Amino acid sequence: MTRKAEATALLVVAMLLVLWEGAVHLLRLPTYVLPPPSLIFSTFVRDFSLLLYHASLTLVEVALGLGMGAIVGVGVAVLAYYVRPIGRALIPFLVGSQVIPVFAVAPLFVLWFGFGIWPKVAVAALLVFFPVAVNFLDGLRSQGPELVEFFQALGTREARIFRMVRAPAALPFFFSGLRVGATLALVGATVGEWVGASRGLGYLMIQANARLRLDRVFAAVLALTLLGLGLFWTVSAGERLFSRRRR
Amino acid sequence: MSPLLELNRVHFGFSTPQGFLPVLEDFSLAVEKGEWASVVGPSGCGKTTFLKVSSGLLPPQAGTVLVEGGSPRGRVAYMPQGESLLPWRTALGNIMAAREAEGPVDSETKRQAWALLSDFGLARFAQSLPHELSGGMRQRIALLRTFFARRNLLLLDEPLGALDALTRAELQEWLLRVWQNLSKTVVLVTHDVEEAVLLSDRIFVLTPRPARVAMSVLVPMPRPRERSGSAVQALRAQALWALASAKNYDEKS
User: Fold this and answer.
1) For chain A, what are the domain ranges?
2) Three-state DSSP state, B18
3) Contact at 8 Å (CB) between A235 and A179?
4) Which of A173, B67, B84, B169 would you label with A223, given CA atoms 20 to 30 Å apart?
């Protein structure tokens, strides 16, 4: 982004916040209906160590969910690419896994995996694997034959062609899937924490909500947003690193 | 001595929704070791299919394809038409890929790839990515990559087809120099009869689809050949005439 565009973006954000602040004061909204941004910021600062305590666990769950979801997603995509009937057979299950509301499966995961971090990791992974699998498969399928024909004629084994040509060519697709997955993983982990947890930003939000501490709920949302941005940028940085290294 | 590439009464066609589409019919041809053979024919006649069958990418439905007396798969270096360089690899990395295709490579391979680039005037592009290079440079890299593979037989599918006339003339001379320095056998598919006359020892003229060799023209002239020389122009006329009569022959039959 250019300096000018950045300045404009900041200005827009500032104007929206001012509007929000003004509306809350003008309409005399109680803070348990909609807290003004100033209160949210001051709560965020005051509760910073509390937020950090909960956010750190959420981050661990999200990172694990993202990693596992990515591995399963790549595995499913490779399987579907090479074994077309399996790919077809998997589609109903893949779509099914995504149309079930996360709220419905989260309690099941608690039942299966206990109250620790694993049900949250599982919900996050469930949301991550789908965009990764779909994007990576698209990346594998969208390649023209020219790139591989040179190697096929030389008699190169398919495993090597996959490593040298197909996988690197599909890498940008993988990363765009992972970027979508990074934000979904946050949703997954938070929902997992709502259902049954004793720590984590989702748990903090449920607790604060029950006490009508909406300022704290919003402060947790702010923390989630920052986590999401951080993950998004980390994935983008990872992509840049990879695309430099594979030269 | 048996030929390096031999197609014997090869039949090949595609199944389409409209029925079977024959592309190669009773197709026979032989290329000797060390030779430069060009294949010319009307567009869409099956030149690319001929190369894919010769490289083992497509199995013939009848007849035999022999490279060095055996199955072609793994025995040829085939340069596909269009952009075939790996876009994330530098020119040097792309050249090395021809050897990496067969297993891990050492620093000696890197040195050889580097030497190849500098021998043919591309050293300063070694670290460039394909998208940073002009179309002519990209084709030079792709051609050198094909030469760098440890194969005696190179199959080139219209490597200069997409270039402007000036760049193409430049590359024809360059390619001839590369070939003369690195004893390989080349089969070049082209739609440019003049290119075939300038470069080859032998020209195969194909009929329209389904393709068959209509005529084989020998070019017994020393290289480099003068583009505007009368001998080149006479042979060009002869090849063009062969191309035209191959068309007519097909229409009459």
Assistant:
1) 37-246
2) coil
3) yes
4) A173
Q: Does A162 touch chain B (CB under 8 A)?
A: no
Exposure pattern of B198-233 as b/e (b: 16+ CB <10 Å)? bbbbbbbbbbbbbbbbbbebebeeeeebeeeeeebe
User: Could you tell me the CA-to-CA distances from A96 to A76, A93, A100 in Å, in that order?
Assistant: 15, 5, 6
Residues of chain B contacting residue A150, judged by C-beta atoms under 8 Å apart: 77-80, 84, 98, 145-146
Residues B212 and B182: their CA atoms lie apart, in Å, by: 31
Q: What is the mean pLDDT of residues B91-118?
A: 94
Cα separation of the two ends of chain A:
25
Given the structure tokens 């299919």, which residue do they identify? Answer: B49
pTM exceeds 0.95, yes or no: no
Phi, psi torsion values for A89, nearest 5 degrees: -65, -30
The answer to whether the CB of B101 falls within 8 A of the CB of A164 is yes
Asked if A150 and B76 come within 8 Å (Cβ–Cβ), the reply is no
Task: Answer yes or no: are the C-beta atoms of A216 and A172 closer than 8 Å.
Answer: no
d(CA A134, CA A178): 11
Q: pLDDT tens across B60-92, in order?
A: 999 999 999 999 999 999 999 988 999 999 999
Q: Is residue B148 within 8 Å of residue B99, measured between CB atoms?
A: yes
**Minimum-distance CB partner of A154 among B81, B87, B101:** B101
Residue B80 touches partner A, C-beta closer than 8 Å: yes
ipTM metric:
0.92
Number of H helices, E strands in chain B: 7, 9
The candidate with the shortest Cα–Cα distance to A223, out of A206, A200, A197, is: A200
End-to-end CA separation in angstroms for chain B: 36
Better pLDDT: A168 or A3: A168
Residue B123 at interface with chain A, using a CB cutoff of 8 Å:
no
Distance (Å) from the alpha carbon of A146 to chain B's nearest alpha carbon: 5
φ/ψ of B38, rounded to 5, equals: -115, 150
Confidence grade of residue B253 (pLDDT, cut at 50, 70, 90): very low
Q: Which residue of A has its CA nearest to B83?
A: A146
Q: Is B250's pLDDT higher than 60?
A: no
Q: What percent of chain A has pLDDT over 90?
A: 73
> For residue range B117-164, what is the model confidence (pLDDT) as tens digits?
999 999 999 999 999 999 999 999 999 999 999 999 999 999 998 899
Q: For residue B82, list chain A residues with Cβ-Cβ distance below 8 A.
A: 144, 146
For residues A178 and A136, the answer to whether their CB atoms sit within 8 Å is: no
The correct CATH number of A37-246 out of 1.10.10.10, 3.30.450.40, 3.40.50.620, 1.10.3720.10 is 1.10.3720.10
**Assigned token pair, B40:** 């010319």
